[in-house]
Design goal:
Number of domains: 2
CATH topology of the largest domain: Phosphoribosyl-aminoimidazole Synthetase, Chain A, domain 2
Radius of gyration: 21 Å
Order of helices and strands: HEHEHEEEHHHEHEHHEHEE
CATH superfamily of the largest domain: PurM-like C-terminal domain
Largest sheet: 6 strands, mixed
CATH class of the largest domain: Alpha Beta
Structural class: alpha+beta
């Protein structure tokens, strides 16, 4: 970890005093004092994912650094969960502007420490650098899988039932509340929805449990429709889902009321970090067992109805079977 220039603190002292303690859970990190880290893998395979967030694009300048630490860890853990893997360690890249203070660093590290304790992971390396632009954070999360049990997007089959965990749209509404697009006079509802955006819940245990049950899976980061499309396109199939079967929290319902257009928009909002997955008919009884075992809501929302690729790989219907129009399926980094 190297090459930061700041008038506020010494880079190497920052690494030694603040970041190095985060590596104590992995001996092969060598206290972040070497050029690289070593991971011992006794069996199985490594799963890798990376994600970056940029000030002004993914979060406001005023965001609490502890919240940023939590969010960047959790969005990467969600990718690990979608593969049915077990998280182990991570690499961190910090691109810090000159305005960064030691107080900010201390708060950010405190947030990382809290997440490490909750999810049993350790920092093993990365990089620190100075930027003349906005603050940028990036994490590469490392997970493990055993016996080649891995969940992929490409395994969906005709006849599979489509499921999603948790509630869809909470995070999108939370962001809208932060931005002032929606308003709520109920403080507890506002806090719940905003927290769902700031601190998503990676479904790690559910992902592990889906190994051997689900034919395909993806995490809902870009939006339910967009990520289900990823499954369909990777698997060469098309799907039918029902709007009224999409799980919406009571808090979200209180904001959108009974507005159909708003309900459809929630399917494209993104940042849910739930799991969408497909299960063959003969194994669907095990889904409710997983729901009870891991105390997570799981809802059947549709079915894989055919094979082949075309533009309309997902059909959204209302309770009467009428096809509903969708203007946007989800977030795209270079067009939104």
């Amino acid at each position: 970890m190297s090459s930061i220039k700041s008038t506020h603190f010494d880079e190497f002292k920052m690494i030694k005093e603040h970041l190095s303690p985060l590596s104590l859970g992995e001996g092969g990190a060598y206290g972040l004092s070497d050029d690289a880290a070593k991971l011992n893998i006794e069996k199985g395979n490594i799963v890798l994912t990376t994600d970056a967030i940029i000030e002004g694009v993914h979060f406001p300048k005023s965001e609490d650094p502890k919240i940023l630490a939590s969010r960047i860890i959790r969005v990467n853990l969600s990718d690990i969960a979608a593969m049915g893997a077990v998280p182990r360690a991570y690499l961190l890249v910090l691109a810090l502007p000159s305005s960064t203070t030691l107080k900010w660093i201390e708060s950010f590290v405190e947030g990382l420490s809290d997440e490490q304790k909750e999810f049993s992971i350790s920092l093993i390396g990365g990089d620190t650098t100075h930027t003349h632009s906005e603050l940028m954070l990036s994490i590469t999360m490392i997970g493990e899988i055993y016996d080649n049990n891995i969940l992929l997007r490409s395994g969906a089959r005709i006849g599979d039932y489509i499921y999603v965990s948790g509630f869809i749209g909470d995070a999108a509404l939370g962001l809208s509340l932060i931005q002032g697009h929606y308003k709520s006079n109920n403080i507890s509802i506002t806090d719940y929805l905003v927290n769902r955006f700031r601190k998503p819940t990676p479904r790690i245990d559910l992902g592990k449990g889906l190994n051997g049950i689900a034919n395909s899976a993806a995490d809902v980061s870009d939006g339910l429709l967009a990520d289900l499309r990823h499954i369909c396109e990777a698997s060469g199939v098309y799907a039918e889902i029902y709007l009224n079967d999409i799980p919406i929290s009571s808090e979200a319902e209180s904001i959108i009321k009974n507005d159909i257009d708003s309900r459809i928009e929630l399917l494209s909002g993104g940042d849910d970090y739930e799991l969408v997955f497909t299960v063959p008919f003969e194994l669907i009884s095990q889904v409710s067992e997983l729901s009870e075992k891991y105390n997570v809501e799981i809802k059947q929302i549709g079915k894989i109805i055919g094979a082949g690729l075309n533009e309309d790989v997902i059909t959204l219907k209302d309770i009467n079977g009428k096809i509903l129009k969708v203007d946007s399926e989800g977030y795209q980094h270079f067009s939104n």
